[in-house]
Design brief:
With 81 residues, this protein is mainly alpha-helical. Helix content is 58%, strand content 5%. It has a two-stranded antiparallel ribbon with strand order 1-2. β1 and β2 form a beta hairpin. α1 packs across α2. The chain starts with 10 loop residues before the first helix and ends in a 7-residue tail after the last helix.
Length: 81
């Protein structure tokens, strides 16, 4: 079921959306629906149960004190496979 909504949007963004819709020969509402669906789908993939991804929130690294890193690197079997 489709439902009408009212919202305010940045005029430049609206201009770009209308130009894109004309270029793709689609209605503006189709462009907005597709963009919203894509945004919501990507947002769901980025989070798990509403919590931010650990990798994303730490950007792939967990800080450790320099002394601890040196100690680990100096361990004899650190480089043994």
């Amino acid at each position: 079921m489709r439902q009408k909504i009212g919202t305010a949007i940045n005029s430049r963004l609206l201009y770009r959306a209308r130009a894109f819709a004309n270029q793709k020969q689609k209605h503006l509402n189709e462009i907005i629906e597709e963009a919203l669906e894509q945004y919501l789908t990507q947002s769901k993939k980025k989070t798990r149960e509403g919590l931010p991804s650990v990798v994303r929130s730490t950007k792939g690294s967990i800080p450790a004190p320099v002394d601890l890193v040196k100690e680990v690197l100096e361990e004899e079997d650190f480089f043994e496979v």
